[in-house]
Amino acid sequence: MNARLKPYKAVIFDLDGVITDTARYHYLAWKRLAETQGVHFDEAFNEHLKGIDRMGSLELILASSPRAYTVEQKLALADEKNRHYVELISTMSPSDLLPGAVQALDACRAAGLKIGLASVSKNAFAVLDMLGITGKFDYVVDAAKIAKGKPDPEIFLKAASELGVSPADCLGVEDAVAGVASIKAAGMTALGIGDPAVLTQADSVIPGLDHFTETP
Ligand code: BG6
Ligand code: MG
C-alpha cells in the first residue's frame, strides 16, 4: 500500500479547491456581490471565506458594510451570489477535475480504504455529477446533512460515522483554514492542499492532489 495511506482506514476529501477549482468561482461570485454592496474584496479576504458556508460567508462580507440588512435582504443577496456561481459552474465537466484528483481517489480505493466527501456546499452533488465522480465516494456529507459548518467538526465526524470508521483512523484533505480546523477538531489527521504558511494547523501540506501519493 502507498506509504501515505498506510496508517488510515478512510480518507475524507473536501470538494471545492481540492478536487476541482470551484474555489475560484466562489471567489469571483463573492467578489462581484461584495462590490455591489460597496465592500472591498480581495484574495486575502477570500482566504477567510474558504470552507465557510453560504450565509456565514455573506455575514463576514457584510460585516465590512456600514449598512444594516434585514434577514430578507441577506437571503436575497445570498441567492444572487448563488445564481452567479451556478452560472459560472454550468459548463463544468470531467475536464475540470484538478490534476491528480481521480488518481488520488483510485489510490484510496486500491488500498481498500473507505472514501468520503465533506463539503458544506449546497451545490456539492451537482458539482460531483458534472465532474462524473459521484460513484467514487462511499458517502457524501453536504450542507443538507449537518447543522454546523466548518470549522465545527460535525461534518467530518458525520462522514467518519457513516463510513463506520473511527476519527483517529481518518485522513481529512482540505484547502481551507476552516476545513483544516474542522478536521483537527474531529481528531483526524489533516492533509492540507495549498500553502503551508496559510494552513498552519495541518499535519502536512502538499500543493495539490497530484502530490497525494508521494511519500510524506
Ligand atoms: C465551500 C466553499 O465548499 O462551500 C465556500 O469553500 C462556499 O467558499 C461553501 O461558500 C458553500 O457553498 P454553496 O455552494 O452552498 O454556496
Ligand atoms: Mg475547499
Textual characterization of the structure:
- The chain is α/β, with parallel strands linked by helices and 216 residues long.
- Helix content is 40%, strand content 12%.
- It contains eight helices and six strands, in the order βαααααβαβαβαββ.
- The chain has helices at residues 22-36, 43-49, 54-62, 71-89, 101-110, 124-131, 154-163, 177-185; strands at 10-13, 114-118, 139-141, 170-174, 189-193, 204-206.
- It has a six-stranded parallel sheet with strand order 3-2-1-4-5-6.
- Helix 1 crosses helix 4 (71-89) and helix 3 crosses helix 4.
- The longest helix is centred in the middle third of the chain and has 19 residues, at 71-89.
- The chain is globular.
- The model has no long low-confidence stretch (mean pLDDT 96).
- Bound molecules: 6-O-phosphono-beta-D-glucopyranose and magnesium ion.
- 6-O-phosphono-beta-D-glucopyranose (BG6) is lined by residues 15-16, 23, 26, 49-54, 57, 82, 119-123, 143, 176.
Total beta strand runs: 6
Question: N- to C-terminal separation?
Answer: 13 Å
Mean pLDDT over the full residue set: 96
The general outline is globular
Low-pLDDT runs of 5+ residues are none
Q: Pairing-aware structural class of the strands and helices? A: alpha/beta
Question: What quaternary form is this?
Answer: single chain
Which strand-content bin applies to the residues?
5-15%
Can you list the strand order of the major beta sheet? Answer: 3-2-1-4-5-6
Helix-strand pattern, N to C? EHHHHHEHEHEHEE
Percent of residues in helices: 40-55%
Main sheet overview = 6 strands, parallel
Distinct ligands, ions and cofactors found in the model: 6-O-phosphono-beta-D-glucopyranose, magnesium ion
- The radius of gyration computed from the alpha-carbon positions, rounded to a whole number of angstroms, is 17 Å
* Tally of contiguous helical segments: 8
